[in-house]
Structures are given as C-alpha cells and as structure tokens.
Design a protein that fits this description.
- By secondary structure, the chain is of the alpha/beta class.
- It has two domains: 160 residues, D-Maltodextrin-Binding Protein, domain 2 (3-Layer(aba) Sandwich), CATH 3.40.190; 120 residues, Periplasmic binding protein-like II (D-Maltodextrin-Binding Protein, domain 2).
- The chain is built from eleven helices and ten strands.
- Strands 1, 2, 3, 4, 5, 6, 7, 8, 9 and 10 form a ten-stranded mixed beta sheet that branches.
- Helix 3 packs across helix 11.
- The radius of gyration is 20 Å and the shape is globular.
C-alpha cells in the first residue's frame, strides 16, 4: 500500500470544438468582447478561446467576440499584457483564459500571483491525464513504475509537455505521493505530443505523462500501454486503474478557467460572472464539452477565487520541491500534503 496521501483537485485544459445553431434570444451581457489566449494560433488555449467565442456568439452573449493570441512563457506573457480595466465590461469586456501552466509560469517567474494580478471569474473544464509506456516496456503496471521510482528517483525519465507545465507538476505530485525525493526526478519536456511519443519509442524516455484522450489512438493500436489515469473513475477506452484505486490519493486534471482584468468594479465582476454562468448552462457549450470529452466542473465568483488561492499555494509547493523556484516565501496556503495514514 502506498503510505502517503496527496489530494489535488485541478480542472481543465480546453480543446477546439464547434456546433451549429441560431443565436440566443437573451440580451447580450457584453458589447465587444476580447478573449486573450496564452498560446499561438491553432494551439492549446487558442483553440479553447475560439470555442468560447463561437458559443458566445451563437448564444447571443456578446455582439462581437475577438480572440487575441499572446503566446510565451507558460502563459506569463499573456498575463503581463492583460492590463487593468479599460472600460465597463458590458461595453468592452475582456477575458483571459488561464490554467495550471499559467499559474506555474507566474510562480517560476517570481511575479505577482494570478489571483493578485487579475479578477478570478470561473473555472470551466478539465482534461484527465494518463501515464503510459511503450508496448515493449518492461514496466507492466504502475506498481512496477512506482518500485523503480523508489529504488532510484532519477532512473526513470518521464516525458511530457513543457517543463514547469501541468504534466511536470503532476509528476512532482506523484513523486511526492510515493515519498521519493522530488528534486531527483528526471523529466523531459517536449513542445508537442508527436515529439514526446517519438522520444518514448526511441527509448529516450521511460514513460509519458499527458492528456489521456491524446493517448487513446496509440493505446488502441497497441503501441502504448497505459499504467494509470489521474481521474476519479476509470476512463472509457483506457484499460488502466486510477491513482486512487492504487491508494495514491491524487485526482488531477489539467484545468482551464477565465479571468477578468485587475480592478474590476463589483458591477462589472457580477456581469462577467453572469456571462460565465450563461456559458456553462448553454446547450451549445454542453454539446461541445460532451463531443470533445471535456470534464465540466464549474466554479465561479468568490468560490473560484478562494479555490485559486489554494491551488496557487499547492502548485508553488510542488514547483519548489522540483527545484524550479528561485525563492520560496510561503510553505503552503492551507491545502498541501495529507499526512500518512492513521
């Protein structure tokens, strides 16, 4: 039995989607709305922003919606360009997509936290992760992987998306759960899934962490073997246990949410949260989520702000354990590692 508990709730990174239909009949919440995406066009959060824009226009939530791409630095570049309020939200609204990579990027840059730099509005969706190996790997189960990690934390090399991003953070959380020295973990970040998978097939990495959905084709073709998934329940199409089943008290999903500019008035904040509420309740949005396998776990307003404070502190601690922070001024903001079993 694994002897440590580390309970994490983190929710989701969007992908693109679309659906048809006429405009909604409600009065628009915003006139001209700009959605800032911390990604290059056609990648990651850009696709998320365009999905949001499509649904908002389709439901008549705003008269016009423009997507502005601001890639670089794990989202820190987009945050830096997301200045204070320009005008009333109902006339010229601005939203910034955020998620775990941005939270981590800001901490690594030793900049002001996302909570302090913006007005948190809502958490939207998530994407479960999976740990996979090549079909010819000597690691048959997650227990095999965990045993190798305990023998020598630096021996298995795990690949995933960029260093300091959500996959890297998850690896640190798993290592912490298993009681290993997380500073010794060997992680290789790649710019894309194809490059990461090739590194696995070439033997340059031992295993991959990433979006469970992205591994389904390789699993179905017999090229990849899933060892474990990070969801609370098993995932259709992936024959692997959850971390929770294996007594690793960790549930994790790459999360995505939206922020407003710093200094929003209470009236503008209420209007922006109302827009998010309408988005989450939208039949179009729910259809897009269902079609793309996104996990809708909605949280808005003050509840989201408080959750984000806790999540930022938890992320900061893991990044420090991984040796990615130059300074570490706080130990935790009230939600860290649960102690060993009673």
């Amino acid at each position: 039995m694994y002897r440590r508990r580390f309970l994490v709730l983190a929710l989701g990174l969007l992908a693109a989607g679309g659906c048809d239909g006429g405009r909604g009949t409600h009065t628009p919440v915003a006139g001209r709305l700009t959605v800032v995406a911390p990604a290059a066009r056609g990648q990651g959060w850009d696709r998320a922003a365009r999905a949001l824009a499509m649904v908002m226009i389709g439901e008549g939530m705003a008269r016009t919606v423009e997507v502005s791409d601001q890639p670089g630095s794990l989202g820190a570049a987009a945050l830096g360009s997301f200045a204070a309020v320009r005008g009333p939200f109902t006339r010229e609204g601005r939203l910034l997509l955020t998620g775990m990579p941005m939270i981590a990027g800001v901490e690594i840059a030793n900049a002001a936290s996302v909570v302090d730099s913006t007005t948190p509005l809502a958490r939207l969706v998530g994407d479960w992760a999976a740990l996979v190996v090549s079909s010819g790997s000597h690691l048959r189960t997650f227990e095999d992987f965990a045993a190798a990690l305990r023998r020598d934390p630096a021996e298995p090399t795990v690949g995933g998306r960029m260093e300091g991003g959500s996959d890297h953070v998850l690896y640190g959380m798993i290592g912490k759960c298993l009681g290993v020295d997380t500073r010794l973990l060997d992680y290789a970040g790649y710019s894309g899934g194809t490059e990461a998978e090739q590194a696995l097939y070439d033997g340059r990495v031992t295993a991959l962490l990433g979006s469970a959905r992205s591994f389904v084709p390789g699993i179905a073709a017999g090229r990849l073997r899933p060892l474990v998934v990070s969801s609370g329940e098993r995932i259709d199409g992936i024959d692997a246990p959850t971390l929770m089943e294996l007594d690793v008290r960790l549930e994790y999903t790459d999360w995505c949410g939206v922020l407003g500019p710093r200094g929003m008035s209470s009236e503008d904040r209420d209007a922006a949260v109302a827009l998010c509420d309408r988005l989450d309740a939208s039949p179009r949005w729910r259809a897009v989520c269902a079609a793309n396998g996104w996990n809708r776990v909605y949280l808005s307003g003050e509840d989201f702000r408080q959750w984000l404070v806790t999540e930022t502190g938890r992320t900061r601690e893991v990044l420090n354990d991984l040796g990615l922070l130059s300074t570490f001024g706080t130990s935790c903001w009230g939600s860290c590692v649960h102690r060993p079993y009673m």
